[in-house]
Amino acid sequence: MVFNSLTFVVFFAIVLLLHAMPFTWKVKKVNLLVASYLFYAAWNPPFVILLWISTVVDWWAAKKLVDAERPAARRAWMLLSVVANLGMLGYFKYGGFLLENFGALMASLGVAYQPPKLDIVLPVGISFYTFATMSYTLDIYLRRARPARNFLDYALFVTFFPHLVAGPIMRPTELVPQFEQPRRANANQLCFGLALMTLGLFQKVVLADGFLAGPAEAVYDGTKIPGALDAWAATLAFSGQIFCDFAGYSTTAIGAAMCLGFAMPDNFRFPYAAIGFSDFWRRWHITLSAWLRDYLYIPLGGNRHGESRTYFALMATMLLGGLWHGASWTFVVWGGLHGLYLASERMLRARFAGYRPSALGLFGLGLLTYLLINLTWVFFRSKTFGDAWRVLKGMLGLNADAVPILPAVDLIAVAVIVGGIVAAHWLMRERTLESLLARVPAPALTAAWACLLFAIVIEQGSGNAFIYFQF
Amino acid sequence: MLSSTSSSDRAQHFAADRPGFVRLTASDRPGVAQPVPERDIPLQPWPRMFATAMALMLLALGAWEWRMRALGLEAGDLDDGASAWAEQRRRIDTENVQVAIVGDSRILFDTNLDRFEALTGTRPIQLALAGTNGRPFLEDLADDAQFKGLVLVGIAEISYFRDGIGLNAEALKRYAFESPSVRVSYLLHRELSRVFAFLDSSYRLSRLVHHVDDGLRAGAVASIPDRLWKLAVTGDDRQTTMWSRVESDPRVRAHQRAVWGVDRPSGRPITPIEDAVVTSTQEKTRAAVVKIRARGGEVVFLRPPSSPEFRRFEDVRMPRARAWDALLTAADVRGIHSDDEPAMQGLYLPEYSHLSRACATVFTDAYTREVARVTPRLALRADAPPALTPADCVAVDARVTGE
User: Fold this and answer.
1) Chain A (144-163) residues lying within 8 Å, Cβ to Cβ, of chain B
2) What is d(CA B335, CA B302) in angstroms, rounded to the nearest whole number?
3) Comparing C-alpha atoms, which of B205, B167, B83 is closest to residue A6?
4) A interface mutation test: which of B6, B21, B27 has the most A CBs within 10 A?
5) Residue B170 to residue B172: CA distance in whole angstroms
6) At residue A12, does pLDDT exceed 90?
7) A255 and B CB contact within 8 Å
8) A460 and B201: CB-CB below 8 Å?
């Protein structure tokens, strides 16, 4: 189920109630586990089986890996986990894509091959929970983590509903220890958790779905030719939409976990105030970028085997990171552009090592970063390269036969909301949300909280899925 | 300044020592085990703030509900959509459905299910969808071996003669698979809508904002669904009627007429529907009719009225001889066209395209009697109420609208 649904409101109220009852800690954990399976099954009950397979395979692989004495055996059990997880991910997420491209390749070679139409349904959140379960086996293999004391703690680590389908992608060392001791939120934690959930849902329901999705959709999914104003407005709208959608999900997830007494890590740190692309990736989808760094970039050589190897590792990581987002070449281009940006930044940093920009210079570099990030969003949002090219040409003012698309009210909404988001990110660049909330007088904070709640309720929401569920 | 979710004493110190309370994340710790996260709780009276915020929100919501009711929204308007449609469609899987209606918004708004039931003793299931081509839904029934009843197909030529499904393509997918979560949310929303008028998708915050923009940017013409304010009210069984304010408020009515754009041409040429689309529509319709008849079912076509203003536009795109007459011949079906029935003349269409609530009842009365005449699949009850005439609704509408 999605957080922005009436089903979740009822579900979460029941979970909170059960968690507050005087049960033993083990019973409470069983409650949370059952609730998490219900949370997942609410999309499509049969897919719970996949979740079980992923859970059980990694539990046994890690167990055998710990018991194994020979390095080769340890490696074999680790590989079993990786192959099983990536195999499942590959089949469900990339099966159709691979066949389609194989067919195209054969056609280009003059071989008539019509691939079968697989019609595979993508299980929601599969990319997230396979990464979480893989990190369990890999961390144990790399001796960074101890195995969970019991299957219940481990299964709950994989399945815990706040992070299950769209992250933050948790590591075993972050979450398993939290299940070892009884945890229950006190009144402050419960209410602050609810405040975070309000903020997250406001971002998703009101800003992303209510005001920003429409303008992006009108230009990207329409057939009209956009001019510069419409193309830029739609792209900026999407930059705001995807941030509010995903950061909104993460904030709601962190709040939901906090209401139950658990802590989850930051997944966003005001990314549109990033200065440079390495800074951007330390602020955007932090748990994914850190996962890719630790389990892909570093094993590929990282930055310790010479410059060429570093650039190779960087590009490979970003291209695969792009493909992780979806089985489409547009996502690969998105990742490739980020790889190029990161590689270029690395070269420039080496070339101008002594350069120390002024405050204004830093601000200019930040805006340049945001501008270039927006160019990558064009490929991320477009369903085809044709659509991407139509919008890019519009952004560059090259569409001679452009027509006005977005009504004035949408242009104003995009300017106000996205301008507000970017300004807020710059103001909060070196701070956390909590530091701001600690300073604001309680009455003002209460009034703002009431306004957010009111806006969520009157926007109603249509229970749209979060964008990252499809990844 | 802060407390923390961590049980560690270290956390509180650490938080206070950090400028801006910025904490390390996984991005700052490459290649190592990530520790249990620390979450700061800003020092504020959170429980009191939560209670006050909830109270303020409820007060504001009460005022909002009052305002929405003053604007004409009503509790019990259940909102139509894919889940509501799928719920009706599933009835064919479990009940012996005698009559199903497919089509677009005209047959949806213009059918009074209670009147139909009073006349025949049968309550049809309403499967028409606004902004949506009825033909794929006719084909869906044709492919369902369970269905052996009578299908009434509402036709608006410009909606029926096209390749795509239109606005509500999601409905068929929702029928094929509806997740438990979506189903429960739909049921909860429906029950809340019986109590709260403000729960109306047409009057959500982001749509209300668009009401202030009536063409401020020259040339930027949003799609018709995006420009609609509110047109209909939906009750149980998807009984849909025109929203009362379209009838009673000249401003709302004028806006809706302008949205259709039939009396204020945009300057763009109106092009006839392509021959290929006409031919494929006829072929697909014929195939569906054959399948339904093979199981003992029957199909009757209905053409609800549209105003002369709308009709001028429709006749350019798809004149009757090319559309209606040819379709009946090609599919070998009986049809009831509002042009041909004296009891359907002079009915009131406030925004040119759909009948007023009162006239929808008169139209239903007229077409039900006619369907019973043209096919033995439907019969009038012995105690059916007497026939209505256009005079029964036109006078009512004149009082409401002042037109």
Assistant:
1) 144-145
2) 6
3) B83
4) B27
5) 6
6) yes
7) no
8) yes
What residues does each domain of chain A span? Answer: 6-182, 189-463
| Residue B306 to residue B363: CA distance in whole angstroms | 12
- Residues of chain B with Cβ-Cβ distance to A430 below 8 Å are 19-20, 22
Nearest CB neighbour to A145, from listed B33, B40, B41: B33
| DSSP label at residue B23 | -
Q: Which of B231, B229, B225, B240 is nearest to B350 (CA)?
A: B231
Mean pLDDT of all residues in A79-92: 90
Which chain B residue lies closest to A230 (C-alpha atoms)? B220
Type of residue at B256: Q
Query: What's the number of CA atoms in the CB half-sphere (13 Å) around residue A408?
Result: 9
ipTM (interface predicted TM): 0.88
**Residue A22's CB: how many other CB atoms inside 10 A?**
6
Distance from CA of B361 to the nearest CA of A (A): 32
How far, in Å, CA of A251 to CA of A260, rounded? Answer: 14
Helix axes A187-201, A442-459, angle to 10 degrees: 50
Sign of CA pseudo-dihedral B315, B316, B322, B328: negative
pTM: 0.90
pLDDT of residue A40: 94
Q: What is the pLDDT of residue A466?
A: 54
Residue B151 in contact with residue B300, Cβ under 8 Å?
A: yes
Of A19, A325, A338, A425, catalytic: A325
The DSSP 8-state label assigned to residue A376 in this structure reads H
Please give the Cα distance from B130 to B117 (Å, whole number).
22
Determine whether the interchain pair A435/B20 forms a contact, defined as Cβ–Cβ distance below 8 Å.
yes
The answer to whether B135 and B281 have CB atoms below 8 angstroms apart is yes
Distance of alpha carbon B324 from alpha carbon B337, whole angstroms: 8
Return the CATH superfamily for domain B65-401.
SGNH hydrolase (3.40.50.1110)
The answer to whether B373 touches B255, Cβ cutoff 8 Å, is: no
Under an 8 A CB cutoff, do B218 and A404 touch?
yes
DSSP class of residue B193 equals H
| Sign of the C-alpha dihedral computed for residues A352, A358, A362 and A367 taken in this order | negative
Structural contact between residues A221 and A383, judged by C-beta atoms closer than 8 angstroms: yes
> Per-residue pLDDT tens for B81-95?
999 999 999 999 999
Spatial CA neighbour of B65 closest among A260, A302, A337, A460: A460
CB of B149 within 8 A of CB of B99?
Answer: yes
Q: For chain B, which ranges sit under pLDDT 70?
A: 1-21, 263-268, 400, 402
**Are B26 and A254 an interchain contact pair (Cβ–Cβ within 8 Å)?**
no
**Nearest-by-CA chain A residue for B213:** A409
Say which of B47, B56, B198 has its CB closest to residue A458.
Answer: B198
Q: CA–CA separation, A287 vs A264, rounded Å?
A: 11
